[in-house]
Amino acid sequence: MPSAHSSPPTRRQLLTRIGTLAGSAALYQAMTSLGHAQGTDFKGPPALGGAKKGTKVLVLGSGLSGMLSAYELRKAGYDVQILEFQSRSGGRNISLRGGDTVTELGGATQKVGFAPGNYINPGPWRIPYHHQGLLHYCREFGIQLEPFIELNHNSWLHSTGAFGGKAVRYREFASDFTGFTAELIAKAIDQHKLDDLVSEDERDHLRTAMKSWGGLGKDYTYKKGNISSLRRGFARPQGGGIDGAPIPSDLFARDDVMKSGLWNWMAFHERLDMQTTMFQPVGGMDQIGKGFTRQVKDLITFNCKVIALHQDQKGVTVTYNDMANGGAVRQAQADYCVCTIPLSVLSQLDVQVSDAMKAAILAVPYASSVKMGMEFKRRFWEEDDQIYGGISFTDQQISQISYPSHGIFSKGPAVLLGGYMFGPAAYDFAGMPPKERLERALAQGTAIHPQYRKEFSNGVSFAWSRVPWTLGCCSMWTEEARKTHYKTLCSVDNRVVLAGEHASYIGCWQEGAILSALDAVTRLHKRALGAA
Amino acid sequence: MRHILLLSALMLSSALMPVVAYADSASSVEGKVQTLPDGAAVYKHVCQGCHMPDGKGAEGAGARFPALAGNPKLQSAEYPAYVVLNGFGGMPWFGVALNDQQVANVVNYVRTHFGNHYTDTLKPEDVAAMRPHLTVEDE
C-alpha cells in the first residue's frame, strides 16, 4: 500500500472500509459479529394483572401505541378511556381508497379516485419479519398478512447522470458490480497486493469466495458469457427447440458501474429493516388499525382536541375541546395518563411535567415525508416489463416507484407508489399544490416508464408535514439528543408516561410504537402498584 | 448564551453525522437539493411546505406552524437565523442543508415579505459567526 498506516483504524473506520471494499452484505456480517445490528427485542406480551380496582388511566391518542396501551391496561384490570383528536382511530396507520378525501393544512383537498379494491398506504407500508411485537398482535387480533416484495431483481435503477440517463435492470447492475468487484479483489490477491493484510490461508479462501460470489470464470475474470448472463440475463433468452440457444449479453463498462452510484440501492436492501421476508396486511395497512380498534373501540371518544395535561399528587386532568360539539371545553380525570400525542404537537400544548421532560419533548424534530399514490389503467409494469412487486429507484426527487405486491396478474387499473420522499425533496413537494406534485411525479416517472402518461388514470399525494394531527412524519432523533433526553422522555413523570414511535429506538416504524407502548404500560403498572 | 451556543454546537455536529435515524425512510440517500439561488427560492422549496406560501403558517391539532407574517420574533434577524440553523421543537435543523448565504437570503426574504418591512440585512458572515466552530476532527 502506498499510503502509510499512521494509526490503527477505529472500529467505525474499520467498518466503513469493510463496507466500501466488500459491499454492505459483508459490512452487515462484520457488524453482526461485532455485536451490532439485531432485531427488535419483543419478549412476549406483558403479564400485568392485579391492578387496584377502580384505578383510571386516560390514554391520549388512538394510534397503535395508544390502542395497545389501552388493550393491555384494561386486561390488567384498569379502567381505561381513550381520547382521540380525529374522527377515526389508527393514527399514522392509514390506507386511502376511492371516495376518501384528504384535506391538508393550507386547505388543499383531494378526493381519491381509485377504482374499487385499490388502495395506497401513505404511512407505514411494509413490516420486517423481525418486528415480532407488531406481528404478534397481528396474529392475536386476527389480522391477515401477506408477503411484501421488497427486492425485485427485474426492477429498474435509474440515475440521471449514469448510463446516459437510461434505467438499467437491478440484476444487470448488481451482477456487474459484484462481478467486477470480485475480479478486482481476486486480482489484488494474485498480484500480492493484499499480502500485508490477509494471511496466505485466508487469501486462498477469499479468492475462491470471490469466484463464487462474483460469478467469475476459471481465469478469475468477470466477462461476457454464460456465467455472467445467468445472473444479469441474456441478450437472447434461453429458449426451447432447435433455435433455443441463448446469446449472452454485453456487460456494462466497469467505470460506468463504479461511478454510477447505483450501488446505493443494492446496499439499501441489505439493511436489517429491508431484508426479506417483509409483510403487509391483506387489503391495506389500515387493516392493522382496524384490528386494534376492534379490541378497544368501546373505550374511544373521537373528536377530542387536547389542549392541556395537568397532574398533581391525586391524579391527572386533561382539558380538551369537544370538536363534535362546537369545541366545547371539557375535562377528563384519571389516576394516570399514557400520552401518545406526537411530540411535534405535544411540544406546543400546556403540559405539566418536569422541566427535563419538557426539554425532552422539545428536543425531537419531525421528518417531512411525501408519498404519491398513482393509479394506472393497467399493470404495464407487469405486462410490459415483467416487474411483479418490488421497487425501482431513481436519483430524481420521487426517489422510487414501488409496484403493488398484491393483485399480481390481475386485469384493470392498479395503484403504485409513484414517489416516496424524505429530506429536501419532501420539503419541496409538500410546498406544492397537489396537482403540481402529481405533474412532477408523472414527469419524473416517465424517465423510468415511458408508458406513464398514456396509462395514467388518477392520483393522490400525502404530505406528512401538512397533516393536522402530526405536523410531520415521524421523530428524527440525533445521537446527541438521545444521550441527553431519551431516558427522560421514556420515564414515568409522576403520573404521566409517553408512548409512541418517538419513545423507541425503532423510530418511524410501527414496531417502535408497539414496543414503546408495552414498556410504558409495564412501568406505569409498577408505578401504580407502588413499586416505583 | 454560552450554554445555548454549546447546545447548538452539539446539535450541529450531530447533524453532520451521516446516520440520522429515519428508519423507514425512502433511502439513506435523500436526493439532491435543488439550486436555491435566492431567498424566494429557499422559501418556496424548503419553508412553504409548513409555513405556507403566504407565510401565514397553519393550525393543526392544538398546535401550529407559526406564521411568519407579522411575527414579532422576526424583529431581530438573529432569531430566525438561529432557528433555521438549529431547528426548534418539531422543526428540523437546516444548518447542514443550507449554506451561510442561503440562510441569510431566506431570513432577509422572510423579514421583507408577508407584510414584514425590516430594513436591516443579515449577511452571510453573520450566519457564519452563529455556526459553531468545527475542528478538523469534527468535520
TrEMBL record, chain B:
<dbReference type="GO" id="GO:0046872">
    <property type="term" value="F:metal ion binding"/>
</dbReference>
<dbReference type="GO" id="GO:0009055">
    <property type="term" value="F:electron transfer activity"/>
</dbReference>
<dbReference type="InterPro" id="IPR009056">
    <property type="entry name" value="Cyt_c-like_dom"/>
</dbReference>
<feature type="domain" description="Cytochrome c">
    <location>
        <begin position="34"/>
        <end position="114"/>
    </location>
</feature>
<keyword id="KW-0479">Metal-binding</keyword>
<keyword id="KW-0732">Signal</keyword>
<dbReference type="Pfam" id="PF13442">
    <property type="entry name" value="Cytochrome_CBB3"/>
</dbReference>
<protein>
    <submittedName>
        <fullName>Alcohol dehydrogenase</fullName>
    </submittedName>
</protein>
<dbReference type="GO" id="GO:0020037">
    <property type="term" value="F:heme binding"/>
</dbReference>
<dbReference type="InterPro" id="IPR051459">
    <property type="entry name" value="Cytochrome_c-type_DH"/>
</dbReference>
<dbReference type="InterPro" id="IPR036909">
    <property type="entry name" value="Cyt_c-like_dom_sf"/>
</dbReference>
<keyword id="KW-0408">Iron</keyword>
<keyword id="KW-0349">Heme</keyword>
<feature type="signal peptide">
    <location>
        <begin position="1"/>
        <end position="23"/>
    </location>
</feature>
